[in-house]
Structure formats: structure tokens, C-alpha cells
Write a structure and sequence with these properties.
It contains 20 helices and 29 strands. It has about 750 residues and is of the alpha/beta class. Among the domains are: about 1-130, Rossmann fold, CATH 3.40.50; about 140-255 and about 420-525, FAD/NAD(P)-binding domain (3-Layer(bba) Sandwich); about 255-420, FAD/NAD(P)-binding domain, CATH 3.50.50. The strands form eight sheets. The protein has a seven-stranded mixed sheet with strand order 13-19-14-15-16-17-18. α10 (about 360-370) links the parallel β15 (about 350-355) and β16. α2 (about 20-30) packs parallel to α5 (about 105-125), α5 (about 105-125) packs antiparallel against α15 (about 600-610) and α8 packs parallel to α9. The longest helix is centred in the last third of the chain and has 24 residues, at about 505-525. It is elongated.
């Protein structure tokens, strides 16, 4: 390792100088932290303070910087030193803002600050300045898979931004679902009537753009590589294969309507006069090409009465049909009802709904339909009984509570069946491996189950040929914090393949996804992470000579960032990595690390804390806090001056999935009285930024009881808690309650050893 020079800088601003003995903190950094260069400053984040640090880097040869000031989540631009290893000691949000400003609390508050200085000095010494990803990719072409409204919009927006686009569409023409519509829901004032789709103009725009290469009657035969350096084989109908070098990928493969033939109780398949919303669009387009009159499919007679059945096969609680609401269907039925009223006001038009969801300007559209004579009836349809050329609709009238309500002699019934995403193979259903054992044994293979047979992307990833899906089949990501992003870095989804949406929402979605894809390919060229640690220059390092080939890292990586070579050693694809550290936590022999985050960086902090003896009545509690939810919640607790115990020492971790059991063992052996791990919600409704990180971490920690028994320690000394970023009041309460419980248990028997 090259020579390092560590410097520590202590801030006196934001009340730190008034609440803490900063001269004592300087001495702690010098003596306990063994830092040769230590300085304090009245306001370290101002221009003068930052200039002082930069001057020391330039003229004093400083390579490693420890900043004792505010949270590492604050002043990130001011304290941005990409060429240096940097650690932050949180003295503001983590100390003075969570402690009372009283003489009684002064000693424990100072103890807290001094420990954080020790921890910061220890952490930075264990770091190496991140050098960036050496396997950069410089290709700036965006691949868009799907030529519907979403895909075409993404292609146009990327082209406007100056990026070349390859657009692949499996059919013979662009337009997708949008091209099948007669009219669309209006997106401009006055929101009174159905509007022109605009799809033809969008198709012309795409075909006329020299920056967009279009493949029709084509599919993706193979995708390999990583952001900035994907290599994609495009298979065409002629049998030829074209290889394209790609920077990022956007999947916009759209949706199909739920198969109405699965709804025989609603007349589906029993009469041609029972159609879904796509069927009605076809009838309306056919009518427009003739005399404008929508006719019964059975005999060609004009429709004089029509009933729209909402939530057909949707919002199902039995597990038989779609469990979710597709959202767009209500406004679509409003639009389609107007087809009849605009052509002939005398057509009896009824919409039977359980809940009519027309938010925003959709309310104006709904009222316009009412004014045109469309009848809206709150009810739940139980049966549609075709007979000859008409049908009888039976429903539960939810207003009158009439379970036997009927509408007879209906010429046409339209079922609002909802969106099913064209997401490709469900790779998690192919086989569900168990998490590998603590000793590194290979995971057990799960049973094969029925899956979708057609792959969209045909990825060469070890983890499967397509992007992972949610339980409903929509492509998976952290849908709240990271829309568009899939679990495959550099591959994004947009439109109804991601979640149910209408055309307007899909176009907005496409624009956002295109911008995220551009961000990914630009970061790939710079060797930086795209998300969620955007701009991070670190990437995983592995000592292959110590690898046992247990496959835990390849199995547990949530993002498909690790493949295997012919000798079954892990192959890290750095550009795919999200920097979560799950691989590091999974490794039983601890050969995986990052330059600025490793078993050693956290272990050094744990060991740096001053552990009082058993007679001092000052317990020590270690908190390993997820940096995405728990740590921000702790910060905001400080901002709100929500007090919690002065006996905790908090170490931010990238994810609960990165936690190595050695940290817990070391802490308990060192005399900590307890260990708290704060991670995100796991399970099907997960809130983990790294998808399965918190779940995997909890699986590993579930076996910590064996370690506690070996040490003759109570199981209550280790606590695993789910924490959301909004738990600003709850987190301090949990900490204080846990501190009280540890007092009742008694001090650790390892103090003083």
C-alpha cells in the first residue's frame, strides 16, 4: 500500500463549539486516533474551511481525511474529495441534536462525541481512496425494446438529448396498443370528449429521425455485457442477426389485456356480443370507417344499449384473477361510453362500477360523460347471461343494496379486464434456491414451476434471461425510490410493463426512464455507480486465492452483478454493481470488500469505541443502521431534537445484507452490552433499496443465537428491527426502550477483558 497521511478536521459551527469541548476532541484524534495532523475550524463547511482542507491535500500530502462535523448525508458537495479517502464523524445530528443541553448531560454527550472521533479516525485508516471502475464503457447508444407509445416516446426523447437509439419492435409496424385505439382519453382542456390518439404522428417522428435505427419484425436474441458496453444480438424475421453495441437498455414491452375467456360467468366466450375494451376499440374503428354506427358483432345491427362492466377479473380477493386495480380502465370506459353517445345520444349507455377512479382532470371527463347521458351505477356484476343477440346483466346494486338488480336486453357488454404486463420470463419462478448455509454450502435447488416461455431480453446473466418481476408480473425495482430501475443495472423499464397506466402516464414514464438510462451510460463511462449510491467510485474487490467457491455471492447478489467463470470462481461485473455489499456480507471467508467499505472499516470502528468498565454504569450499545432508511431516520430525529440514549454508538452500513456476523461477535467480545441492527422492511412488500438485502441479512442473523450461547450471553442482547425512513419519532423510542431492557439484563460480562 502506498504511503498514507491522515488528517482530522473538527468543526465548531452549528453549536458544536458551544456544546462540546472541541479542544478535547482534537486531543482524542491525536492521541487515540493517532492522527498526526488535526485542525479545528469555526465553520468547516464554508469556503475558508474547505480551502484549508484542500490546501493540506495539495501541500501537506494528505491522502485520508476525517471530518468531525455534521452527518455524512449533509454538506456532501462541500466535503467532496474524490481523490481522497474520506470518513465523517457525525457530531451534530448524531450527538448534540439528540442530547439535552444540560449540565447533567454534558459528560455523556462529550463521551459520545469523543467516541465518534475515534471511530472516524479508525474508519478512514482502514480505507483506500476509491479508484473507480477500470472496466468502463463508453458506448452512448440506447436500446429501446418495444415500439409502442412508450418505446417510441423514449426513443424520441433520447434522440432529442443527442443520444443515438436502436428501437426493436417484434411486429411489422410501430404503434403497439396505441395504434389499435379509435380515440384516446383527452390530455388537454377542456377534457370534454375523446381525442385523437396522435400515434400516427409519433410513428412519423420516429421513422423520420436519422438518429433512431428501427428494427421491425425483430426480437432480442442475446444480451450480454454491462452498462456502457452491452452487446446485443437482434434477430430479424429473415433469419439474419445484427449485433449492436449498446450503452443502456430500456424495456417498453407494454401489456396485454387480461384474457376475458377466464370470465365465463360474465358471458365471455358465450356470445360475440360480449367483448373486452380492445374489442370495442376495434368495433369503433370499424364503424368510423363506414357510417359511424357501432354494430353488434352477432348480426351487424346497430347497438341500442350497452353495459360496461368495471373491474372484470380485477381487484380479485380469491386468488383466481388479477389482485390489483389497473387504474386506467375507468377513464377508458368513460371514453368508450362517449363513442356511443357522440354517435347517437339515444343509445342506452350504462357503466356498472364498484369504485369509479377518475382522478385529476378525469373528473371533468367523467362529468362530461354524465352530461351526455351516460348512466353510472354503483354495483358489482355477478353474471352476464347471453341469450340470442342480447344479454341480461345481473348485479348487486350497492346503492340500494339490491342483490337481484338486472339490466335486460343489452345489445353489447364490454368487460374492463385490466392490464397484464409483457414482462418476459419470471426468472425467480424458474427455481427458487435457498440461501446458502452459514458454513458456505451450496444452495439447494428449488422445484421448477410453470413460467412464461418467451424471454424478452435473453440476458446471458447467471441469474436468468430477464429482469426480475414482482408477484403480479410487473418488472421489479424499488418502486417508490427508484422508478424505472430494474434489478439489472443499466436496464430500465417504462410504461405498463412497470405498472398499470394510461397513455399519458406511459409517455411521462418513458421520458423519465430515458433520462435514467442516459444517466447510467454516462456514469458507466466515468466508472461511477448509477444508483442508488450515485457517483460512488468504489466497487467490489475479491481475493480469489481465498475463495471457497461456495457460490453464496453469486446466489445472493440482488442485481445480477456476479457471474461465474469456467472454474466456478465469481466474476464481478463492476458496472452492474449497486454497491450494496450483500456479497461482502454473504462471504463466509471474508475475501470480498470495497475500498471504502469493508469488514475492516466497520470492524475498526467497533474496536475504536472506549468501553467503560462495569462499575461506571455507562453501557455501550452498537447500532448498525441501514444508510438508506434507518440512518436518515436517525438524522431527522436529530433535526427534530428527539432525544435518545447517549450510550449508543451508530455505524451506518450500506445494507443489512452487508452485515458480517464477525461484527456482532467482535462487538460482544469487546464488551458492548447489546447490538441493534436497523434494516428495511423485507418480504413481498419490501422497502429495501437493495431488494433482498435486509431479508438476506435477517436470515444470516437468525443464526446468531448459536454464537450468543457459545459466549454465554442472553439472546436479548442482539436485536433486529425494521425501520422506515419516516420513523423519526419511533426510532428514538425503540433505542431508549432497548437501553432500558439492557440495564435490566445487566452489563456485559466481557467488560474489562
Amino acid at each position: 500500500m502506498a504511503d498514507i497521511k491522515v488528517a482530522a478536521y473538527i468543526c465548531k459551527g452549528c453549536g458544536l463549539g458551544e456544546r462540546l469541548d472541541t479542544d478535547a476532541l482534537v486531543k482524542v484524534a491525536q492521541k487515540d486516533g493517532k492522527v498526526p495532523l488535526v485542525k479545528s475550524h469555526d465553520f468547516l463547511c464554508n469556503a475558508d474551511g474547505v480551502a484549508m482542507i484542500r490546501n493540506d491535500v495539495a501541500n501537506e500530502g494528505v491522502t485520508h481525511i476525517m471530518i468531525g462535523a455534521c452527518s455524512r448525508r449533509a454538506k456532501t458537495e462541500a466535503f467532496f474529495f474524490p481523490e481522497n479517502a474520506v470518513a465523517r464523524a457525525n457530531l451534530r445530528e448524531g450527538v448534540i441534536w439528540i442530547r439535552p443541553d444540560t449540565e447533567e448531560a454534558r459528560e455523556t454527550t462529550q463521551d459520545m462525541a469523543e467516541d465518534y472521533i475515534r471511530m472516524g479516525c479508525a474508519e478512514v485508516k482502514a480505507m483506500t481512496a476509491p479508484g473507480g471502475n477500470p472496466n468502463t464503457g463508453s458506448n452512448k447508444t440506447l436500446l429501446v425494446v418495444g415500439g409502442g407509445v412508450t418505446g417510441m416516446t423514449a426513443a424520441v426523447e433520447a434522440s432529442k438529448a443527442g443520444y443515438p437509439v436502436v428501437l426493436v419492435e417484434k411486429s411489422s409496424a410501430l404503434g403497439g396498443w396505441g395504434a389499435r385505439l379509435f380515440k384516446r382519453i383527452p390530455i388537454h382542456e377542456p377534457f370534454k370528449s375523446p381525442a385523437d390518439t396522435g400515434v400516427a404522428d409519433l410513428v412519423s417522428q420516429v421513422m423520420g429521425d436519422s438518429n433512431i435505427k428501427v428494427y421491425l419484425n425483430a426480437t432480442i436474441a442475446k444480451t450480454e455485457g454491462a452498462p456502457g458496453r452491452f452487446v446485443v444480438d437482434v434477430a430479424t424475421e429473415s433469419g439474419a442477426t445484427h449485433t449492436e453495441d449498446i450503452g443502456a437498455i430500456l424495456q417498453a414491452t407494454g401489456f396485454t389485456l387480461y384474457d376475458m375467456n377466464k370470465l365465463p360467468e360474465l358471458g365471455a366466450g358465450k356470445s360475440p356480443n360480449v367483448v373486452d375494451q380492445a374489442g370495442l376499440e376495434a368495433l369503433a374503428s370499424e364503424a368510423a370507417a363506414k357510417d359511424g354506427v357501432i354494430r353488434r358483432p352477432s348480426d351487424g345491427q346497430p347497438v341500442t344499449s350497452v353495459v360496461f362492466v368495471q373491474c372484470a377479473g380485477q381487484r380479485d380477493t380469491t386468488g383466481t384473477h388479477l389482485s390489483y386495480c389497473s387504474g386506467y380502465c375507468c377513464n377508458t370506459s368513460v371514453k368508450q361510453a362517449m363513442y356511443f353517445k357522440d354517435a347517437n345520444p339515444s343509445v342506452e349507455t350504462v357503466v356498472v362500477y364498484t369504485d369509479l377512479r377518475t382522478p385529476g382532470n378525469g373528473e371533468d371527463f367523467y362529468r362530461s360523460a354524465q352530461e351526455k347521458g351516460v348512466i353510472f351505477t354503483k354495483g358489482k356484476v355477478s353474471q352476464v347471461l347471453p341469450s340470442g343477440n342480447t344479454s341480461t346483466v345481473k348485479f348487486h346494486d350497492l346503492i340500494l343494496d339490491d342483490t337481484d338488480a338486472t339490466i335486460a336486453d343489452v345489445d353489447l357488454v364490454v368487460l374492463a379486464t385490466g392490464q397484464v404486463p409483457n414482462s418476459g420470463v419470471n426468472i425467480e419462478a424458474l427455481a427458487k434456491p435457498q440461501v446458502a448455509g452459514e458454513e458456505g454450502e451450496a444452495p439447494a435447488e428449488g422445484q421448477a414451476v410453470e413460467v412464461k416461455p418467451i424471454s424478452i431480453l435473453n440476458l446471458t446473466y447467471r441469474q436468468g434471461p430477464d429482469v426480475p418481476q414482482l408477484t403480479q408480473g410487473f418488472t421489479d425495482s424499488h418502486f417508490i425510490c427508484f422508478p424505472y430501475e430494474t434489478r439489472r443495472t443499466g436496464i430500465y423499464t417504462a410504461g405498463p410493463v412497470r405498472r398499470p397506466m394510461d397513455m399519458a402516464q406511459a409517455r411521462e414514464d418513458a421520458t423519465g426512464a430515458a433520462l435514467k438510462a442516459i444517466q447510467a451510460l454516462e456514469n458507466a463511462e466515468l466508472g461511477r455507480a448509477a444508483h442508488p449510491r450515485s457517483g460512488d467510485l468504489s466497487f467490489p474487490k475479491v481475493r480469489l486465492e481465498g475463495c471457497t467457491q461456495c457460490k453464496r455471492c453469486t446466489v445472493e447478489c440482488p442485481f445480477g452483478a456476479i457471474d461465474e467463470d469456467e472454474k466456478r470462481f465469481p466474476v464481478f461485473n463492476e458496472s452492474r454493481c449497486r454497491r450494496c455489499g450483500t456479497c461482502m456480507g454473504a462471504c463466509p471467508v471474508r475475501v470480498i470488500s470495497f475500498e471504502n467499505y469493508s469488514v475492516n472499516t466497520v470492524g475498526a470502528q467497533i474496536k475504536a469505541v472506549d468501553i467503560p468498565d462495569e462499575f461506571s454504569e455507562k453501557p455501550r450499545i452498537l447500532i448498525l443502521a441501514c444508510e438508506n432508511d434507518a440512518y436518515p431516520a436517525l438524522d431527522m430525529a436529530g433535526m427534530n431534537h428527539n432525544e435518545y440514549s447517549a450510550f449508543v454508538r451508530i455505524i451506518p452500513i450500506r445494507c443489512l445484507g452487508s452485515v458480517n456476523t464477525i461484527w456482532v461477535t467482535d462487538a460482544l467480545n469487546a464488551g458492548y452490552d447489546g447490538v441493534m441492527m436497523m434494516g428495511c422492511k423485507s418480504g413481498e412488500q419490501y422497502q429495501c433499496h437493495f431488494v433482498k438485502g435486509s431479508e438476506l441479512g435477517r436470515v444470516r442473523m437468525s443464526k446468531i443465537d448459536d454464537t450468543l450461547k457459545t459466549l454465554n450471553l442472553e439472546s436479548e442482547r442482539v436485536r433486529d428491527l425494521e425501520v422506515a425512513i419516516t420513523d423519526i419519532k419511533r426510532v428514538p423510542e425503540m433505542i431508549n426502550k432497548y437501553a432500558e431492557e439492557l440495564v435490566a439484563i445487566g452489563p456485559s460480562p466481557f467488560k474489562g477483558f
